[in-house]
Structure formats: C-alpha cells, structure tokens
Design brief:
single chain; 276 residues; mainly alpha; 58% helix; globular; PBS_lyase_HEAT; phycobilisome
Amino acid sequence: MQESDPERIGAQGDSPSLTVEQAIANLSHEDTSLRYYAAWWLGKFQVREPAAIEALIAALEDEADRTELGGYPLRRNAARALGKLGDVRATPGLIKCLDCSDFYVREAAAQSLGKLGDPSCIPVLEQLLSGGLAAAVPIPGRPHLAQPYEAVMEALGALGAKTAIPLIQPFLEHPVARVQYSATRAMYQLTQDPIYGERLVQALSGKDIQLRRVALSDLGAIGYLPAAEAIATSATENSFKLIALKGILEHQLNPEQAQSLNDAAIRVMTLMDSLL
C-alpha cells in the first residue's frame, strides 16, 4: 500500500460550513477529521486572525492525526494553510517541518515557505539539495523521491536565493522531467536568463499532456512573456492555458498604474480573450 498525498476523500467537500470561531475551536477538537477540515477551511478562506495563526502553528506539531504509514495529515493541511495566510510568524514552525518524517509535510512546508518570502529559511531549504543528484532517488515502495525537490527548488526561486544556483543547476539533468522543470523554473527566476524560459517553452511540445500542463504552470509562475503565443497554441485544455497566461499578465501589470496597460499586457489579454 502506498501513501498518497494526502487529502481525505470527501473530508472537505462534505463537511458543513463553519464560522471563524468554530474553525479555530475545532483545531483542538478530539475528532481528528474536524481538526483536519478546520485547518483547510482557515487557509481556504484566508482567516488571518492571531488566534487562527497560533492554532495552525501549534497544529504543525500534532501527534494525534496519523495514517497507517505514519503520515501526519493535520500537519500537512496546517502547513498549507499557513502559506496562504502570509504571516511570517509561521516561519520557524515550517522550518522545523522540513525535518519531519512525512514527505508530504516537508513538501507542504517548503511550498509555504516560498510563499511567505522570509529569507531566513533559505539555508535550511538549501540543505535539502546538498546531496545533489546522487541523493535524489526514489524511496522504495513510495511514489516520491527522498526529498520534495520540486517544492524546495521552486521555493528557493521564489525567495530569490542566488546562493542556491550551484545546488539547483545539477537538477536540470535529473531523470524525472517534473524535477527538471522545477529546476529550470528556479534557474530562470534566479538568473533571468531566457535560455531557461525557452527550455520550458520547448516542453510544451512534449508527448505527455500532464507534463505539458506542468510546463504551462511553470511558465505562468515565472511570467515568461515570450512564451505567451506558445502557451495559447499549446496542445492542452484552454483552462490551463488561461491560468498560465493570467500568471504572465500579472507580471506585466504595474500595481501603481492600474489604470494603464502596456503593450505586452494588452497582447496577453488579447490571447486570453481568444481562448474564452
């Protein structure tokens, strides 16, 4: 039996609506399914009240909610929620999660640290890459590698961790395409070298539609404008194309000049209109 990440089927969609007070209270409820749902709910609805942040940080050390294979579902949901809430008080707890035995907790923590933007986590994230390709191998009986390399590299890219460049670069040659794409995405963010953007554009011509979707997501995340036309004509669903183009558009818009659009933004919006 393989442990897959991580959502309990039906746990979120079938649960009743909550108030903020109920959700915070449920994080300490004896019913672990209510605790799990509350953590998701607080992140989904971006509840930034101090009591919610504190309760979610405490949930990062939960021991009660365990799977048969030793995973920590509540910790996973709490880590994801904290990334959505944007409070850097969560940074120490998320850093601690990078040492958790549960791969998916480490993955969720890395993703959230990348969103929080606190550079204090960079050395710990870099440490997870220190073994290089030799350590980046599958775990027997599990559907993942030794570490959540994709999430770690994407976080380092988002954090602008230029010191991580020599650690990320070898992963451009990793045998798993998704890992290659994450390395490529991070290298573009850290160097702004178009060679990396073009590598992701080339991936849009691959045979595997799942990988084409991943490349679309990465191009949107880095806001690589020269990819706009290739995205619009790629052999993927329009919904994925629109999400990627939206990411590119957001990189082109100047929040201080919201009333004006540059030529690049207009070009991307025109492509988006053609897909609707």
